[in-house]
Amino acid sequence: MQYSADGQSDGTATVQFPRPGFLASVFRDFGAAEGPAPDSAVTGRPDGGASGDGPSGEHPSGKGPSEPAPAGPGSAGQGTDRGPGHPGSGSGSGSASGEADPDEAVAAQARAAALAHHRTRAVQADHDRLADLLRRAALPVSAMDFESQLRHYQPRPYPAGGSGADDGAEPRWEDFAPAEPPAADPESGPSRRLLDSGYQRELAQARLTHQRALREWRTRRAEAGSPAADESRRAHEAAEQARARAVREYNESLEECRRAYRLAEPAAVESLLERALAAAETATQDLPTPCRAVFRPLTRTAVLDLDLPALDLVPSLTGYRFAPDGDILPVPRPTADRATDYLRLVARLALRALQAADAVDTDEILAGVVLNGWLRDPATAEPVCLVSVDADRDALARTRLLPPGTPYEERDDEGVYADAEQDEALVRLRQLGAAVTPDPYDRAGVRPAAQAGAAVPAAADLSANEFAQLVRDLLTRGGMAQWSVRLRGPAGLVATGEGAPGTALPGRWVVWASRDTASVGAEQIETLAEAVGEESAERGLRLTTGRFTEEVLDLTAEEGHRHIHLIDGEGVRELAHTHLGLPLATGG
Length: 588
Hints:
Blueprint: H1 20-29, H2 73-78, H3 102-137, H4 146-149, H5 190-194, H6 197-224, H7 227-262, H8 266-280, E1 291-296, E2 301-307, E3 317-322, E4 328-332, H9 335-360, E5 368-375, E6 384-392, H10 393-398, H11 424-431, E7 435-436, H12 464-477, E8 480-489, E9 492-499, E10 507-514, H13 522-534, E11 539-544, H14 550-556, E12 564-567, H15 569-580
Parallel strand pairs: 2-5, 10-11, 11-12
Antiparallel strand pairs: 1-2, 3-4, 5-6, 6-7, 8-9, 9-10
């Protein structure tokens, strides 16, 4: 605080700035490099005279506050009496002598630390966006069946000239007149109440309102029979008829699509599936993941091709750190953690598409769904399949997305991310028998369960569930019931069945069906005969999409193997045409 000559304060204050060593100690606590300390306790003082810090300030030369320092040649040329940071010293500033200015070093460290913090905040924003996508991708899917797509027509009444024209009655003064004020003296006449100024104002306002309403009513009556009013009413009625007709035509077309869907026509089934898949993307519109559907009426299976998001969606850094040498270094995330986060998002997108297909199939047209997740990188010519699911109807009925909030309860040790083995979306996807890439960033692809090709594929192009469904449909149409699959794999299946007497396949059977490109040998027939005995069955059926060797044909003609029946590729094609009414290309 400054004082005048009479000892009174003049209202001004001298600000004491912290010395550079204070900031240097702060950055030293954070691991930053400390700049060189000045030799003198105070730097940047003016040449000669007393310091501006008050009575306690001393001159760098050690003289008193009123005694000037000598300016000899030694002091001017060598600067022995002045600190190295003194602006008036003969040696010049620290930059001239090769030493860095401590204030500038501290300021540079502060700027670097602020930049590292800003970049870390940007990385954290990317992590928050990924966590939000994981949450929204797990939201339940609304069913897009035919009932939910029906439209309803609600007629809109014709606007009859605004408010006040309800029944066309003439406005009455009694409806607008204000209530008279109560009389102070019961014996006073009504003339005394008329002298009330407040009542007179209300009465005048009511008369204006009544006259306005009466004028509008008369105007509406005059315009009611005008050609303009009649034309407006006719235009309104025509517009309402057009709305009703549009709703009726849309519902009729939707009902036509529903009839085609129940007949399992591919175009109708694919249209309904793609509508449901598009509606499922509503929660993540900022993450476009289109999904296309192909329906195979032969096996009543839908093959879905899901476009997966880009790999750079998952942050590759944890943040940035400020190195002791002043550099800003990125802190990379482990590759395994990044791959786990990407697969966690892929699992939710895949489960959402599967549930959308299952929810829309209210008439149970689908026997199964095959979903392939493709990573389409413009830098590569061919897309890479990172996930493939082959789920039948029973598995789809058990598949549900995670309820919102359950997998995202933040804990102190893991935050929004959980371990891959404990992530419920990945666990449920693997329970469906899905093939998932071990490392998406290494472009390690998996084999698709089935390709979304022609509606009538070859037998080798069918998925494992499709082939099992095809064999079951062929044999049950022939009379075999109580179908039970014992073993199933990509190449075929082993099942048991029992046909009623009088059908084409009576008794208990052991069925071995496979998609063989090579010829079936005699050793497989011997194995099937042993299985027939172990299962206490009466007959065995060996079905293949290939052919049998001559040795097999001779073996089944013998007395001990006549209970073994054979169906080759030509027989499978004939059965499909006879019982299913659809062709089948049995070639590979």
